[in-house]
């Protein structure tokens, strides 16, 4: 694989980052994941805009602009021959060569890393046909979940807890209400209404979420942006999650409680289809 590190395209075995990098020592960095379908980038502008926001919220300078980022993404997709897959991007605050809680000087170079992951058939994963099963866990993350930082240990622990119970993912709960999945936004369907938590610092502002809600409204579906409880979720007609890597993924079971008849519901299936169709058309 060819990866990108600080201005250079290198074989993955030759790419290096300092042991003092603040991304490594303090999880002081942000990331984005953009999917690739048919060799084209899905929702690139949304990811580029959120990246700028994440950097700004952490007082990190925005040094790479949209066009340069797009060029790097495309170059990696081409060099690695990616038909379907993902482009991962991470920017950290870098380091001035020591470990210090205090940030390095403003002009310290950031560390910029991008790599690709090839996922043939990403859009027709068997999981989407079967739906996924989730468990609930308390949301023990920090209070700025709107910033896409690389502090992913707790979500990773949640995923492991789900696997230990033979499930696929975990929904995180705060004050009895669902915040989001470990790496996706969470939704339930009650009657003909799609319910998902409103935007705030409690959740990541999903790029897929924004697109899916827009498509749902355009298709005259009813959308309610409000927090919902775990009990409401277990009693819902259907549920699903969204993310750049899974698009719209039906949820068929929560804490052992089957939703509806235990198979992906019509709303989730329809939204997945619309999302994939529209996103492919708009891919760049
Ligand atoms: N919520 C969390 C915690 C995430 O980590 C992610 C994606 O990684 C999402 C939501 C979905 O965001 P997006 O649709 O931009 O991929």
Automatic annotation (TrEMBL):
Belongs to the class-IV pyridoxal-phosphate-dependent aminotransferase family. Pathway: Amino-acid biosynthesis; L-valine biosynthesis; L-valine from pyruvate: step 4/4; Amino-acid biosynthesis; L-leucine biosynthesis; L-leucine from 3-methyl-2-oxobutanoate: step 4/4; Amino-acid biosynthesis; L-isoleucine biosynthesis; L-isoleucine from 2-oxobutanoate: step 4/4. This is Probable branched-chain-amino-acid aminotransferase. It catalyses: L-valine + 2-oxoglutarate = 3-methyl-2-oxobutanoate + L-glutamate; L-leucine + 2-oxoglutarate = 4-methyl-2-oxopentanoate + L-glutamate; L-isoleucine + 2-oxoglutarate = (S)-3-methyl-2-oxopentanoate + L-glutamate. GO terms for molecular function: branched-chain-amino-acid transaminase activity. Its EC number is 2.6.1.42. PROSITE patterns: AA_TRANSFER_CLASS_4 (PS00770). It comes from Psychromarinibacter sediminicola.
């Amino acid at each position: 694989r060819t990866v990108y590190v600080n201005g250079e395209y290198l074989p993955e075995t030759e790419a290096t980052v300092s042991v003092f990098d603040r991304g490594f020592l303090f999880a002081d960095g942000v990331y984005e994941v953009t999917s690739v379908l048919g060799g084209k980038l899905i929702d690139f502008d949304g990811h580029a805009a959120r990246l700028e926001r994440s950097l700004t919220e952490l007082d990190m300078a925005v040094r790479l602009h949209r066009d340069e980022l797009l060029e790097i993404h495309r170059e990696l997709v081409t060099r690695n021959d990616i038909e379907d897959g993902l482009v991962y991007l991470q920017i950290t605050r870098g380091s001035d060569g020591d470990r210090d809680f205090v940030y390095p000087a403003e002009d310290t170079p950031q560390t910029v890393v991008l790599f690709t992951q090839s996922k043939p058939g990403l859009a027709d994963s068997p999981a989407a046909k079967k739906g996924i099963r989730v468990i609930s866990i308390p949301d023990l993350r920090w209070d700025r979940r709107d910033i896409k930082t690389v502090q992913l240990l707790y979500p990773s622990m949640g995923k492991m807890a789900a696997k230990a119970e033979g499930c696929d993912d975990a929904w995180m709960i705060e004050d009895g209400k669902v915040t989001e999945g470990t790496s996706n936004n969470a939704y339930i369907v009650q009657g003909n209404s799609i319910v998902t938590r409103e935007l705030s610092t409690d959740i990541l502002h999903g790029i897929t979420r924004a697109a899916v809600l827009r498509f749902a409204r355009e298709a005259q579906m009813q959308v309610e942006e409000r927090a919902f409880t775990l009990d409401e979720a277990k009693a819902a007609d259907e549920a699903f999650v969204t993310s750049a890597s899974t698009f719209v993924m039906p949820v068929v079971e929560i804490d052992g409680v089957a939703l509806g008849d235990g198979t992906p519901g019509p709303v989730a299936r329809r939204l997945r289809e619309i999302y994939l169709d529209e996103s492919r058309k708009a891919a760049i």
